[in-house]
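Thread amino acids onto this structure.
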């Protein structure tokens, strides 16, 4: 860990004033089991963030929360736009929008079925809950890693008019404005309106252009309107409308050099598994110099570690818009309640991306996907007696992805042309589930859940064709016609029946202690490869992956509720792991990546979480969380290939995006400056071990090109609040130590390699007013 970061944090602690008044930790209420409960009373490892905590951390996007959760990572090989949660090492690093995540996001209980839906902004939020471990009972499919619940703040009937306005300005001319207002429109009805817009913030410069591009500007706007209607003392309805658009520029990748100047082989430094040096060149450098005769062009060594200078063309951007309707009915009887949730969503996703990360046009991709979904859930719950609680539910969903992707390979000498791929994927899923809790003794509770799922998935009219350089002269007139690799391919995958759920036992020796043990079965649906396929066999359905989780956990409130100590030991038996494999293709005379089932894996780990209020220091709260994870492929016959075609067995390799250790520390302090003003201070620190460790790869070349090293991030927030007014002003500092860190490292499969770097040090000034 960096001494500078530790020193700053230590200074923050040492400067805090002493006091004598004792404090107690607040109860955290969560909805992880689809009803309001104290987080200390449920047998689930959950990290919950209130609106106030999210504000302290300076997070404006859901994916930004991951760095504050030990054991959670975000995969987004393009830096922004398609974030995928990886919890306790369980995740599939796939950017294709037809694939489902392993840690599903539930936005106001509506299931987000694609990774492109994970980029929703955080505004006017009541709470975010990150559930760790399989959630196969209450949540079902595609929660083998966990679940992420996002709960927006609803209107409240009978409350006085309330709201807030929050504006900020920061480094690189980044600005953000957020506002919300709630008020009654009748004795039994209230509405709440919320909006947010983020602009500017471009921090990168492309070496492919002469100008200082200041690339990376945000252009994000979202609106939400909610109506709460209290029909009578037992029945209420909540209607929510969402609209948003995102035309932001996304991160520019940095080219990674690996070739000798004449492309006769790999440069020695990279071949040995190390970092590239001045003897290493990219494919674009070689083509520019020897084929086009224009010199090497921008070199990889001209880039900086912070990611501000990149070799990419400045074309990366989004053009997204979405709209959704969510209607919730709630009926409360004396011993039984009923809930109905209906959701309809349309999401249009567009992204341009320079995959070769160079000044040439070797692999420029333009993606467009039209996603739509409709779902219905019914839920009944109640108590048979004081000792027995039950829940029954049923759900149905219909999802469709219409995907288009264009490739521009104009300057790729051996494979020039334009490629076009399109398909439609339809998914229908139905499920019935139940949960039962039985307090059969004063200190013992037995609980279990069971879900039956039926799912059908169809891939329709898959087409992949090329024009220009790879077209065909069908008429003998010298005019090249489109050449079809695949045309009109249809595939289907049927999950005829599948059971998931859990069985567990809780022991509560006192009101302040919970010890639980449980076994859980979860699964992630099978599906189809959504990339560029050269044969129908590549489009065959891959199987669902199964996971058995065994967890022993504890939750305690000690020292008169001034110390909270929670933790868990977990073991995963993971079968038919989904992932990417490589195979040699004679079509491109190189290695291609395809999606399939790798084999079996084992994940073993332990996590702990401390929250402490020192009795001798008034207003101070210290939080610490840590996770240890050993995740490896335990059984597999799959043979991997590195970019040079060197074979290696994947059995025994560590899984990627599964750091062995991860740590998070947060200090919060409140102190009076004088009788008129209060200073609220927050310091947060996170550290990850190697994200993609050396032992996750079978060759030195893979380690050099795809490894991601450890990193740490330090953030601060200082807020001044008047004691007799409703406004406050804050200064936020992000990445205080200016850490250089990598978010992703990947290949375009055609000879170019790249990495995406995280943002360097930044600051933000924020003003807010509440009423």
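Threaded sequence (771 positions):
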């Amino acid at each position: 860990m960096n001494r500078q970061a530790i020193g700053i944090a230590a200074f923050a602690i040492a400067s805090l004033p002493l006091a004598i008044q004792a404090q107690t930790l607040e109860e955290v209420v969560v909805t992880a089991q689809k009803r309001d409960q104290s987080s200390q009373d449920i047998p689930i490892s959950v990290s919950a963030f209130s609106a106030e905590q999210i504000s302290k951390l300076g997070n404006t996007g859901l994916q930004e929360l991951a760095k504050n959760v030990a054991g959670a990572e975000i995969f987004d090989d393009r830096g922004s736009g398609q974030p995928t949660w990886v919890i306790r090492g369980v995740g599939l690093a796939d950017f294709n929008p037809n694939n489902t995540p392993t840690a599903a996001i539930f936005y106001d209980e509506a299931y987000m079925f694609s990774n492109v839906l994970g980029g929703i902004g955080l505004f006017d939020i009541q709470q975010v809950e990150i559930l760790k471990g399989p959630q196969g009972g209450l949540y079902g499919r595609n929660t083998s890693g966990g679940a992420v619940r996002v709960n927006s703040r609803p209107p409240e009937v009978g409350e006085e008019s309330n709201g807030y306005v929050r504006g900020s300005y920061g480094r690189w001319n980044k600005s953000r404005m957020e506002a919300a207002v709630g008020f009654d429109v009748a004795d039994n009805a209230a509405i709440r309106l919320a909006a947010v817009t983020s602009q500017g913030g471009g921090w990168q410069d492309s070496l492919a252009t002469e100008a200082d591009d200041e690339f990376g500007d945000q252009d994000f706007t979202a609106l939400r309107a909610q109506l709460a209607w209290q029909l009578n003392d037992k029945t209420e309805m909540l209607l929510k409308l969402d609209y948003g658009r995102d035309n932001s520029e996304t991160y520019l990748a940095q080219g990674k050099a690996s070739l000798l100047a004449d492309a006769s082989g790999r440069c020695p430094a990279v071949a040995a598994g190390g970092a590239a040096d001045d003897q290493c060149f990219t494919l674009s450098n070689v083509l520019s110099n020897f084929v086009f005769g224009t010199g090497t062009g921008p070199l990889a060594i001209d880039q900086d570690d912070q990611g501000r200078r990149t070799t990419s063309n400045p074309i990366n951007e989004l053009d997204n818009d979405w709209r959704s309707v969510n209607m919730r009915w709630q009926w409360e009887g004396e011993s039984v309640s009923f809930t109905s949730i209906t959701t309809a969503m349309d999401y249009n996703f567009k992204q341009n991306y320079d995959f070769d990360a160079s000044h040439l046009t070797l692999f420029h991709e333009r993606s467009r996907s039209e996603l739509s979904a409709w779902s219905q859930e019914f839920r009944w719950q109640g108590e048979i007696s004081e000792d027995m609680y039950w829940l029954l539910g049923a759900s149905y969903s219909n999802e469709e992805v219409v995907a288009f992707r264009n490739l521009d390979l104009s300057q790729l000498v051996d494979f020039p042309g334009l490629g076009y791929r399109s398909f439609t994927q339809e998914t229908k899923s139905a499920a019935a589930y139940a949960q039962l809790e039985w307090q059969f003794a004063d200190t013992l509770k037995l609980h279990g859940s069971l879900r039956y799922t039926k799912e059908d998935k169809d891939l329709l009219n898959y087409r992949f064709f090329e024009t220009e350089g790879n077209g065909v002269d069908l008429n003998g007139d010298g005019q090249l016609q489109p050449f079809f690799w695949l045309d009109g391919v249809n595939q289907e995958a049927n999950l005829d029946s599948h059971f998931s759920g859990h069985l567990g036992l809780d022991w509560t020796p006192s009101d302040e202690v919970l010890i639980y043990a449980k076994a859980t079965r979860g699964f992630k649906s099978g599906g189809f490869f959504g990339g560029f396929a050269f044969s129908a066999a590549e489009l065959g359905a891959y199987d669902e992956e199964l996971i058995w989780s065994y967890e022993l956990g504890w939750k305690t409130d000690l020292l008169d509720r001034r110390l909270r100590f929670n933790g868990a030991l977990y073991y995963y038996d993971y079968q038919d792991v989904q992932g990417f494999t490589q195979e040699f293709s004679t079509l491109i005379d190189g290695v291609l990546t395809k999606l399939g089932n790798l084999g079996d894996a084992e994940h073993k780990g332990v996590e702990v979480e401390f929250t402490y209020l020192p009795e001798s220091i008034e207003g101070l709260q210290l939080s610490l969380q840590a996770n240890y994870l050993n995740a490896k492929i335990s059984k597999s016959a799959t043979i991997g290939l590195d970019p040079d075609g060197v074979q290696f067995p994947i059995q025994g390799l560590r899984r990627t995006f599964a750091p062995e250790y991860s740590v998070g520390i947060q200090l919060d302090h409140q102190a009076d400056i004088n009788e008129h003003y209060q200073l609220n201070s927050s310091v947060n620190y996170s550290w990850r071990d190697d994200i993609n460790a050396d032992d996750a790869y079978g060759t030195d070349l893979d380690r050099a090109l795809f490894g991601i090293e450890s990193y740490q991030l330090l953030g601060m927030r200082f807020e001044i609040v008047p004691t007799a007014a409703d406004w406050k002003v804050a200064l936020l500092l992000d990445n205080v130590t200016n850490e250089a860190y990598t978010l992703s490292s990947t290949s375009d499969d055609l000879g170019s390699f790249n990495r995406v770097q995280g943002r360097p040090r930044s600051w933000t000034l924020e003003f807010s007013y509440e009423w």
